[in-house]
Amino acid sequence: MKTVIEVGELTKDYNGFTAVDHISFEVEEGEIFGFLGPNGAGKTTTVRILTGVIKPTSGKVSIMGFDLRSESIKAKQIIGVVPELSNAYNELSAWNNLQFMADLYGVPKNHAKKRAEELLNKFNLYDRKDHKVKTFSKGMKQKLILAMSLMNDPEILFLDEPTSGLDVISARLIKDMVLELNKGGKTIFLTTHYMEEANELCSRVAIINHGKIAAIDAPEKLKMRIAGLEWVEVSFDMPVDASDLLDLSGVIDVRMSGDKLRLYTNEPGRTIYQLVDYSRSNNLEIVMLNTLTPTLEDVFIKLTEEKG
Amino acid sequence: MIDQLKRACAIAKKDIRIYYMKGPVVIFGILFPVFLFLAFVIGRDLTVDFLIAGLLSMTIFFTSMSITPVIAPTETQTRSLERLAAAPVSITTILLGDMLASVLFGIGISLVPIMVGMAIGVTVEHPFILAAGIVLAAFCFSAMGLIFSSTPTSMTSTVMMISTMVKFPLVFISGIFIPVGELPLWGQVLALASPLTYITDLCRYSFQGTNYYSILVDATALMIFFVIFMTVAIKLHGRSLPKRL
Q1: Helix B2-15 to helix B91-119 angle, to the nearest 10 degrees?
Q2: Which among A51, A77, A88 has CB closest to B80?
């Protein structure tokens, strides 16, 4: 596998505050690489450095062999970017936004027209191509921004929170598109808050916390790191006092999760028996009972809490 | 180099579509200098060609600096700047694009006072010098506008306030209402520091055939101001861009 993104000892300081602290990692060709972290962990700063928007304080970034410091234009030419908070130009039509991107990336006119038509059709926006973007819904805007990032047919696509704030259908479409693009050979660098999204899409993830990389691995391998801990999720027909369940033997912690209670335990079988006894003695009916293994979210919480 | 120039043209096209092709912008670009000018000349016994020369230089000055200061703050606010910053273009290219749009706007609007002057019988004695002067001045003032837009804010009102504070004093020391030669000595020294002085002088020469400085001095001064403004703008935007994101 060819390394397409190489990051070495990357650091970014803002007036004494270190937002990114000597991080190093590599992304290989054809990967969907997830970059996860809590708010303020340094995700967006890292993406902005990798996409050449801001300069690092120190460290090295190489995109497809181009050093981002000395050859930033060449590096930017082969990437596509969906920034976290970026917008398309509201006063321009969808078509003009795409053509502007084509001009910025030096895409020849004829090719740009074909490409814009193809992308607008793919994202179900063709009928609205001549409408100003200010009339678009958030989902439509996000689809257009993704289409704009694909105008130059990039080798690597940087997506910073691409489904943030989108409805389920729009988010699904974006995720399907990410998978399709990856299948077509594109390397994807994905920043997301949604663990399920990272679990579903990414071949490897890096977890960043306080500017440092806490872990890098495949999602399933990361889950195995906390495999010793399991939990039982239960829901009763009536509200119960969580502290009662903390007294059950083997239960380490109890947390509310919507209308469910999550009991962290090292003896799930024994905990189930005790829950059945508890429901009988309190005249409660068990609506749902489930045993769960760690999710990527649990790994994320454990790693970010540990190193926090 | 050619690639970056083409991309600057694309940015200029975008700016024209978004910021300049608006009725109020065009009308303001014409009316504002006219009203300001009338406010200061009514009641004074001045010749028409003197008036038109002053009006023309003020029109280029105000129109070339009208939009450039607000593009970067507006794009910071609408969050489209990061996309531009991630594109394969340098800061110089972005600024060049913003400047080209402003230059075209400045040149276009400056035709209005020329046509008004010609309609009322004023003749342009040196049309080529006038054309060259307008182009030079449009570049110079557009680059000056870029300096104001480097303020790392998303509030256009802040930028407009700063630019107005600079623009108005310049109008009074540049020989528009009182010829430079009639200014007191301190006024003549101050006039040297204003780029508006030199385009006003060029306009007077083009319309009236009289000038205070030589044509070479006027053109050279405008070019020097342009180079200084552009260099400063590139440096300031290089520093302020990361702060905007």
Answers
A1: 60
A2: A88
